[in-house]
Amino acid sequence: MNEQIKEKILALLDQHRIMTIATLRSDGWPQATTVGYVNEGLTLYFLCGLDSQKAANLARDARVSLAIDHDTSDLMAITGLSMAAHARPVTDRTEAEKVLRMLALKYPEQVTLPMPMPSPEDVRIFRVTPTVISVLDYSQGFGHTDLVTC
């Protein structure tokens, strides 16, 4: 992956904090949901409920597709990322605690939470490792994408 594309991907990841992630249900239908995320380089992390449908889906099949973008009134300013990736549970407590601290830092304007921050035992935390990233940038032309294999 060339450095310019990597910097563009990292900038887009750092500008956003929510993504739509699609997992595969047991009946084969995709399930898309919106989740908050944090990233360390190209590795993304998100959390969900212990008994959530996402957690059950990922226990069967670690493959995910995701999209990160934002709304804009200027058609030619559309930018975003989509990825094919694998999502695996974080089982190391030190890594899980780090992710929870990173998540709190992603919301600096949130002075207090209406509830205590969950502990690693209260939630399921997933590490998302991309295999293919599509970088969307309409400023380079209508529908322009750069495809990157990781």
TrEMBL record:
<dbReference type="InterPro" id="IPR012349">
    <property type="entry name" value="Split_barrel_FMN-bd"/>
</dbReference>
<dbReference type="InterPro" id="IPR052019">
    <property type="entry name" value="F420H2_bilvrd_red/Heme_oxyg"/>
</dbReference>
<dbReference type="GO" id="GO:0016627">
    <property type="term" value="F:oxidoreductase activity, acting on the CH-CH group of donors"/>
</dbReference>
<dbReference type="GO" id="GO:0070967">
    <property type="term" value="F:coenzyme F420 binding"/>
</dbReference>
<feature type="domain" description="Pyridoxamine 5'-phosphate oxidase N-terminal">
    <location>
        <begin position="5"/>
        <end position="134"/>
    </location>
</feature>
<dbReference type="GO" id="GO:0005829">
    <property type="term" value="C:cytosol"/>
</dbReference>
<dbReference type="InterPro" id="IPR011576">
    <property type="entry name" value="Pyridox_Oxase_N"/>
</dbReference>
<protein>
    <submittedName>
        <fullName>Pyridoxamine 5'-phosphate oxidase</fullName>
    </submittedName>
</protein>
<dbReference type="Pfam" id="PF01243">
    <property type="entry name" value="PNPOx_N"/>
</dbReference>
<keyword id="KW-0560">Oxidoreductase</keyword>
<keyword id="KW-0614">Plasmid</keyword>
